[in-house]
Amino acid sequence: MTNTIVKAPAAEVSFIDEVCSIPGGEAIRSCIQCGMCTGSCPTASRWDYTPRQVIAMVRGELRDELLSSNSMWFCASCYTCTVRCPRDIKPTDIMHALEIIAIRDGLSTKRSRTPVMYKCFVDSAKGNGRVYELGMMLKLFLQTNPFAALKMAPVGLSLLLHKRMPLRPSRIKGRGELKAILDKARALGGAK
Amino acid sequence: MERRIGVYICHCGTNIAGIVDVEAVTEFAQKLPFVVIARDYKYMCSDPGQELIRQDIKELGLNRIVVASCSPLMHERTYRRVCQESGLNPYLFEMANIREHCSWVTEDHSAATDKAKALVSAAVRRVFYQEPLETKEVPVNPNTLVVGGGIAGIQAALEIADSRHKVYLVEREPSIGGHMSQLDKTFPTLDCSACILTPKMSLVGSHPYIELMSYSEVVEVSGYVGNFKAKIKKKARYVDVDKCTGCGECANVCPVEVPNEFDLGLGQRKAIYRPFPQAVPNVFAVDKQGYPPCRVACPAGVNAQGYIALISQGKFKEAVEILRRTMPFAGVCGRVCTHPCESECERGKVDESVSIRSLKRFMADYELKVGREKAAPIERTKEDKVAIIGSGPAGLACAYDLIKEGYPVSVFEAAPQSGGLLRYGIPEYRLPKKVLDNEISYIKELGVKIKTNTPVKNLEDIFNKGYEAIFLATGAGISQKMGIPHEDAKGVIHALDFLKQVSLGIKVDLGERVAVIGGGNAAVDAARTAHRLGAREVSIIYRRSRAEIPAASTEVDEAEREGVNLHILAAPVRVLTKDNQLAGIQCIRMELGEPDASGRRRPVPIEGSEFDMSVDNVIIAIGQAVDKAMLPKELEYTGWGTLAVDQVTLQTDIEGVFAGGDVVSGPADVIAGIAAGKEAAISIDRYLRGVDLKEGRPTTIKRVKEVSKEGVETKAKPAMPTLDLEKREGFTEVELGFDEKVAIEEAKRCLNCGVCSECMECVKACQAGAINQEMEEETVEVEIGNILIATGYDAFDPSPLYHYGYGRLDNVITALEFERMINASGPTEGEVLLKDGSSPKTVGIIHCVGSRDKKYHEYCSQVCCMYSMKFGHLIREHVPGAQVYEFYIDLRCVGKAFEEFYNRILEEGTIFIRGRPAEITDVAESPEEQDKLIIVSEDTLIGRQRRIPVDMVVLSTALQPRSDAEEVARLFSIGRSADGFFLEKHPKLDPVATMSDGIFVVGCCQSAKDIPQSVAQASAAAARALAMISAGSIEVEAATAAIDEELCSGCKICYDLCPFHAISFDEEKRVCQVNETLCKGCGVCVAACPSGANTGRHFTTEQLMAEIEGVLV
How far does Cα B1050 stand from its chain's mean position? Predict the structure, then answer.
């Protein structure tokens, strides 16, 4: 980040305006960069840029650099930052908004499995009306790192034995209506 | 007269002309009706601009002026003056605001121009109807009231007083000094706070022109600028300010210690105290929070906190004297009282209530052990003789109180010895006779005559013997019957008779097996006595369950330990006889049904569950009743068979005859009897003095509101030692009492709820005679011309910030606590100490705690950066080698020599980390974090999370408005800004005045600020007040409300609404009137008047309607 020359905002819509227009992102301009969010974040040590830096980069128009980073994908939605932020900014909401923009613009990183997991989750939910864990996990590992599935095998086995992971998917009634809802949401959200 | 209007449009440089097309507006104005001339000019407020208007008035004969420029707040006065200088009444001028209302609020040129035209049109139409008004002059009272004795108030008071004008300085605490007196050093020069403050404080104390009213509060303000009246409540200090020499002997003997608020609870102070050694006035104050709950709960009002406090100091003899102020029965009540005090004891909310009864017994035993000095007889100061009939607790308590009042008192007792049920009802093993005898002797020594073997049958005889008043306290001495077959059989005895015979030493023939019927104390006493007399098998038969037994639970437990059988849920059905000789008793099993009127579950017999018990004796103890045969006939009774008396005065239907105790209440406990005796004593005293019996009774008692239990560590109460079972052969006392060590320890558990225990030790110690425990608060009224408010700030309480651990983690302290700790006169005498007494090696200081946070205070508290850096310096100075981390967001070092101070701290080696810490935790993640506080924060300049282990954390807490700022604002009719601080008239140009003329705000009550700024403001406000004083009089606004008395219906709606108390009601004419000097012209009354009698001068209906029409054109 420090080596990049900051570009002037694009003529049409600047990155900060884009983020400000997302519900929860409005307060981003009032950030005083105190670092309360980063300090409170249980996963921040793994982020390319800390939560506070994410906000600074939005304001600095470092759009592609930020969207292709792994930062927001590590957000575990614990909301501690949102609860503690002295400026009433909602960093959790902003992180999820950035994820949406990153997927939409095809910038989501391959260094995190989370983008693929989101996709697998939604696909599974859309097809069945509820998530089919076994199928979803298999798909996720096939698309990312099949060997990682081996590490998860004992957990999977244990879940199976305790009848916490059904072998076959269960489907809800009215899957057609659900699909219509999801398609509509997708059309409104503009996600690809 | 023909209207000739001149309109002047100001450019205000480009402020207005940059947006509004001023030429178009001028052209527009020129065409309006009655406008003679319309001009525009670059700066209308400049001298040439003003001259333009003056000239036009003179040359064109203008008689109405409109200026369209900025806000009237800025220049209305300027243009009114221009008019006045040109011979035009200033109220014939009107101002249109085309800057704040037009050019500054839009970038749309044409809309701004249109609106400017509309506003000018409105002003022109309005000014047409404006009338000349006359302003008034009122004199200014040269006295000033300064509210708050912190540095700002001190400074202001001195400035004004030095000009030889009187100042009343009101301070709510016992000493002036405010927060500054708590500080150690002051930034950036690091001079000692006390060293620069105390000279000013002592000047205030001795200044001939300052009347210092400490420990006082302003409670009411009326009047108006130049002529205010303020009522000031002087709280009861219980120490005469003029007599007290500040020697401190009183505090040395005071037994009560409570946390010292001046040291924020880090140290202790006594109940009689002065906040700090340099206090001004150097006078002590007694902290009385009201009656402690134990004293409120006691029917007789015994001051338990008082004697417990003295026991805790080892002053056992003095402790007994406190009890004797109320009643004489320390040893008796210390053994048999039902102690309602202990149920209310606040300590019980922490762990267990204090063993109040046992402590009372301890001090009585102690006195008996070391030998009691004979009591000095009380001098007879009254003539009227009083007769008391019955020498039980009620009778003796009444005699005791009356003899102390100086009355000659005689007690008539039918029995061979005095004491009533205390002697004949309570067995020796519970209440040894020598204890009772000692306390009765004490009463006799005071002068009470007790005539035993003297039954009274006729009240007339007593009156004939010269007694003026009689107190009947004959008790409820006969046993109730069971109402079952054969209960008169031989071998059936009544508990009271039984106990009486035993205590008289009369031999009672008892068989091997004894059944006692009943569950009260008399039943248990009878059972245990029977057991002691040799009965092998003693049973108590009680119809409810164990939980409902009315006898004291300790007594029931002891009875069981001694071998008494308990048959609960059983009731006698018949006495079984053989040859009219008792053979046994038939009982029936019971079960508990619905609760009855007493709230206890009613016992219901189980059908067919009868069973027989073979016994040799049955003792009946199911209740007692009043023996009417023993009482004079002329008295009235209630449906319960008790004497009928007035509930408050205890007077019977015969004048001069009072009654109390069991004879009125039915069987009750000792303390209730004592209480009745005391109440009767009050009545008899009033009766004999010819004073109204009822007035002011029953007295209302101010119970202490809240009792802090902060930091109280739990500690169980000691068990009462008892006599070993095998030693309980005869009637030796079972409970053994506390020893001295246990008693002192136990007394120390008392929370001192009322703070001052009223032990009166201080009164004895004060050689100046300055202490008056009976002092009452008083209210004084002062007349003043100006009021300066300098009420200061509250420090933010960081407990709501859970993640910072204040109050939860040791060694997380606030800035003010740190100030006290590092202060040489503080609780640690200037040592920076951890909870364990060691010095910290690393300290983290967290800035902006409660500041710059939308959840608490959005504003910056302005002083925290600087004082935090000062802390950094002081820590390194006091603890050589200590490392200090400052966690900041932005450093604000704006002030003279502030930046240099920052440089100094940097160079000293304090480490600055930019970031607001997320949390403070004691959960270690590595060996070096072990036993440390870990500050988790992002180092935002590195962009990484860090965990900094430290020994101590100082929270640099915000300055916030006083918790009572709203009430104070209402009291003085001043406003508050969004942040809660008092609102100044103008943030830049009038920072010390308020919207209420003659009332000024200075120091931290107006906004957070440092000492130099507070002092500067104080001097500024003093100058403002002095300006008014030296002018001698002031002009008041003529735009006031006016009431047409012809139209006024006297409904008083306006009277109630007026926020300035400017409306009065003429009772004779039945109309409301406006005091024009008080009226601020706000118009509330005008809008509210239902009959249209009230008009606002300069805001008449015509004027306002014309203005509205003008805008709409």
Answer: 41
Give the residue carrying structure tokens 């009550």: B1005
**Option in B855, B936, B943 nearest A39 (CB):** B936
A41 contacts on B by Cβ (under 8 Å)? 918, 945
B941 touches chain A (CB under 8 A): no
Contacts of B948 (CB under 8 A, 6+ apart): B842, B844, B885, B913, B934, B935, B937
Does B45 lie at the interface with A, CB-CB under 8 angstroms?
Answer: no
Same domain? B511 vs B608: yes
Least confident of B275-284, B325-334, B469-478, B1071-1080: B1071-1080
Residue B1040 CA to residue B136 CA, distance in Å, equals 11
B990 touches chain A (CB under 8 A): no
* B582-631 residue pLDDT tens: 889 999 999 988 888 777 788 889 988 999 999 999 999 998 888 887 78
Q: CA end-to-end span of chain A, whole Å?
A: 28
- B940 and B1019 fall within a common domain: no
Residues B136, B141, B142, B148, Cα dihedral to 10°: -120
Domain that holds residue B192: 144-236+962-1035
Closest-CA distance, A15 to chain B, in angstroms, reads: 22
Distance to chain A for B1007, nearest Cα, Å: 21
CATH number at residue B547: 3.50.50.60
Q: Looking at the structure, tell me whether residues B150 and B232 fall in a common domain.
A: yes
Query: Cα–Cα distance between B756 and B773 in angstroms, integer?
Result: 10
Helix (H) or strand (E) holding A105: none
| CA–CA gap between residue B12 and residue B892 (Å, rounded) | 35
Whether B585 and B511 share a structural domain: yes
- One-letter identity of residue B437: D
Q: Do A39 and B917 touch (CB under 8 A)?
A: yes
Rounded Cα gap, residues B199 and B210, in angstroms: 15
CA distance A25 to chain B (A): 17
Choose among A35, A53, A86: nearest Cβ to B854: A86
Q: Is B989 on the interface with A (CB under 8 A)?
A: no
Inter-residue contact B36 to B6 (CB < 8 Å): yes
Q: What is the ipTM of this complex?
A: 0.84
Chain B contacts of A88, Cβ < 8 Å? 854-855
Say if residue B839 is in the same domain as residue B956: yes
Q: At what angle do helices B815-822 and B864-878 cross, to 10 degrees?
A: 40
B87 and B161 belong to one structural domain? no
**Do B950 and B993 lie in a common domain?**
no
Class of residue B727 by CB neighbours under 10 A (exposed 0-12, middle 13-18, buried 19+): exposed
Tokens 């940059």 belong to B18
- Residues A32, B937: C-beta atoms closer than 8 Å: no
**Interchain pair B939, A87: CB under 8 A:** no
Nearest Cα neighbor of B649 from B659, B640, B641, B639 is B659
Q: Do B890 and A50 touch (CB under 8 A)?
A: no
Task: With beta carbons under 8 A apart, name residues in chain B contacting A52.
Answer: 938, 940, 943
Report CB contact under 8 Å: A35, B937. Answer: yes
Give residue-wise pLDDT tens across range B848-871: 999 999 999 999 999 999 999 999
Residue B812 β-bridge partners = B953
Q: How far is CA B16 from the centre of its chain?
A: 56
Residue B578: predicted pLDDT: 84
Is the pLDDT confidence value at A2 over 70?
Answer: no
What number of C-beta contacts closer than 8 Å exist between A and B? 68
Contact A50 B937 (CB under 8 A): no
Per the structure, the count of domains in chain B is 6
Count of alpha carbons within 13 angstroms of residue A105, beta-carbon side = 15
**Predicted confidence band of residue B459 (pLDDT cuts 50, 70, 90):** confident
B689: Cβ contacts below 8 Å, ≥ 6 apart: none
